Q: What sequence folds into this?
């Protein structure tokens, strides 16, 4: 295998792909899908382009296996988030290479993943590796604004996708410590449940010079104070317990035992304060509530008759929405109306007892001994929810090695990927697929 040649190819494809502007909105993913299609066509890998809405494109490529096992789906998205162009060191749509990094919107999220997944299909095809399962590649539209024209549409309208046993989607990474050594493999196998609420307070309008008790702003503020101070109970899923258990050896001696059994650990008041001061840890162990929008009044001397607020709540999968809502209503009091404005289904995390997860662990053990592979309950939402809904075991993991700081460039200015990650990613993904598909 001429890895150097493949590496050069991957770099060039990623540069070209980044130059295709697919900022969502409006997306224009069709242009990106056509670019990928040309490459698959040239390699004689069957692929199909779907345009569910004008300009929005999804591309499905299929590398055939014997059918002995069910397919595995490699998922990535074509759209990217907008840029603050003037804040970038380089043109975010020029595919510029500087000091060993390729810069551009999508360099991490998630055009690099798309290129690596595509290269993996190309490599397996060129090497005539005989496969026991089909390998599906789906480059989707609309991930950044909810997936309606992307994965959600595709799962409803492309039946072959629903046959998949496994899917690999963007999400976790191999996290490097400050010395550039692998610290952990973070693989997300589940995510929190979305429950967004609109709160409304009503009252009597009047002149600001004459305060009265029926002011909706005052009622809303008092109710919000109560709700934002609510410390929701801990609810630890087995996968979260495993996460902390595996992270225990990395903790200072006095914290280790708390991490080893996080349920017990959280009974210790000072430890629970320390742990939950980390926003990601906090989100993993309980239902959370964020006050994200406030509207009330439009003039300095007018008491309005109505004001409203939005709460972005994220629930631990499996918790009962009705019970949570009942508790929210009770705490807000009878004067506040509560309406659900968006919600996602409660889906249990994907099993870790699979040959796919085993293959990742094997890779880690061989290449990064003593580096734990940890399952992550994602606080946010990804397209994986549409796959898990159909019963597909889905892991969110990009085969790249990043420091925490590098990871924060996702959606940020000067997004970039270390070129060596493209080489690493191809080799890792080919290894893992050989393990589970041959
Ligand atoms: Zn993404």
A:
């Amino acid at each position: 295998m001429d890895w150097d040649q493949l590496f050069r190819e991957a770099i060039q494809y990623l540069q070209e792909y980044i130059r295709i502007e697919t900022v969502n909105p409006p997306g224009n993913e069709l242009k990106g899908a056509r670019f990928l299609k040309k490459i698959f066509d040239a390699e004689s890998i069957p692929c199909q382009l779907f345009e569910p809405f004008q300009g929005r494109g999804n591309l499905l490529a299929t590398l055939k296996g014997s059918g002995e096992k069910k397919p595995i789906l490699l998922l990535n998205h074509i759209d990217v988030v907008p840029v603050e162009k003037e804040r970038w060191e380089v043109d975010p749509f020029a595919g510029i290479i500087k000091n060993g990094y390729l810069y551009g919107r999508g360099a991490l999220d998630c055009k690099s993943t798309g290129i690596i997944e595509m290269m993996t299909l190309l490599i397996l095809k060129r090497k005539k590796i005989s496969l026991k399962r089909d390998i599906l590649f789906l480059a989707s539209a609309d991930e950044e604004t909810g997936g309606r024209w992307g994965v959600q549409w595709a799962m409803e309208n492309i039946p072959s996708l629903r046959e998949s046993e496994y899917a690999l989607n963007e999400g976790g990474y191999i996290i490097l410590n400050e010395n550039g050594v692998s610290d952990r493999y973070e693989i997300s196998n589940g995510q929190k449940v979305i429950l967004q609420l609109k709160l409304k307070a009503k009252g009597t309008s009047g002149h600001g010079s004459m305060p009265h008790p029926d002011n909706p702003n005052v009622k809303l503020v008092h109710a919000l104070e109560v709700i934002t101070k609510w410390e929701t109970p801990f609810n630890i899923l087995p996968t979260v317990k495993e996460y902390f258990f595996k992270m225990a050896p990395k903790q200072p001696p006095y914290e280790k035992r708390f991490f080893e059994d996080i349920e017990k650990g959280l009974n210790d008041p000072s430890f629970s304060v320390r742990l939950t001061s980390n926003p990601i840890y906090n989100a993993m162990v309980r239902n959370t509530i964020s006050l994200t929008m406030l509207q009330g009044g439009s003039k300095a001397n007018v008491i309005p008759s109505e004001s409203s607020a939005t709460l972005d709540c994220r629930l631990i999968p499996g918790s009962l929405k009705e019970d949570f809502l009942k508790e929210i209503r009770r705490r807000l009091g009878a004067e506040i109306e509560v309406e659900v404005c968006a919600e996602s289904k409660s889906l249990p995390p994907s099993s870790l007892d699979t040959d796919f997860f085993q293959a990742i662990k094997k890779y880690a053990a061989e290449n990064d001994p003593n580096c734990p592979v940890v399952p992550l309950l994602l606080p946010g939402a990804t397209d994986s929810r549409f796959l898990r809904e159909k019963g597909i075991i889905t892991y969110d993991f990009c085969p790249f090695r990043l420091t925490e700081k590098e990871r924060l460039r996702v959606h940020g200015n000067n997004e970039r990927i270390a070129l060596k990650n493209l080489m690493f990613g191809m080799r890792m993904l080919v290894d893992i697929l050989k393990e589970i598909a041959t």
The mean pLDDT is 97. The CA atoms of residues 323 and 329 lie 10 Å apart. The pocket of zinc ion is lined by residues 77, 109-110, 143, 170 (CB under 6 Å).
